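Supplementary Note 3. Input sequence used for the single-chain structure prediction.
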Amino acid sequence: MTDTHLFPYAIALRKNKHYSQSRIRLFSLLTTAADKGPIYLHIAWSYDNQGRETQALDFYQQALGYPLCADDEFEAAFGLACTARCLGRYAEAAGHFERLLIRYPARTEIIPFYALCALALQDTALASRLLMGLVIAHPPTDAIAAYQSTLAGYWHDPLYVAERTEVNNSSQQ
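The predicted structure, written as discrete structure tokens, is reproduced below.
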């Protein structure tokens, strides 16, 4: 099998839950591939899919050390942040999530994971702010959508903003 066929085959193996076989093929590609970033990303995913986050973390970091297309770069950075959170490295993960939201503001899938991380760090004000902002911007049901402008009004009301700021400041002391 040629290298051009081996990469898609290794991906198919991973998607069919043949993680070890997939990694064997992916690792063999690293010796000759000029474009190593996507290979490292798929190795990270294979470990992640298997619940082996410690190994996945290293390969997400390696993937980010090489050129990646825009989608793969996001996926590697998001994978790194989520995996750090899973490993209990909350402060590190929070930094990754914050950078991800700045760089990819339209990628709303970041928000719930960042909120989980904030909760683990006992920053309930940040978690609430993230989740309320998400619910207001993207109501999950028609019933909530009916109140979208009302919620936004309360959320941006100067008295409520001052109250949130006060609670946030007291929780950081």
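The chain has eleven helices and no strands. Residues 87 and 104 are 23 Å apart (CA to CA).
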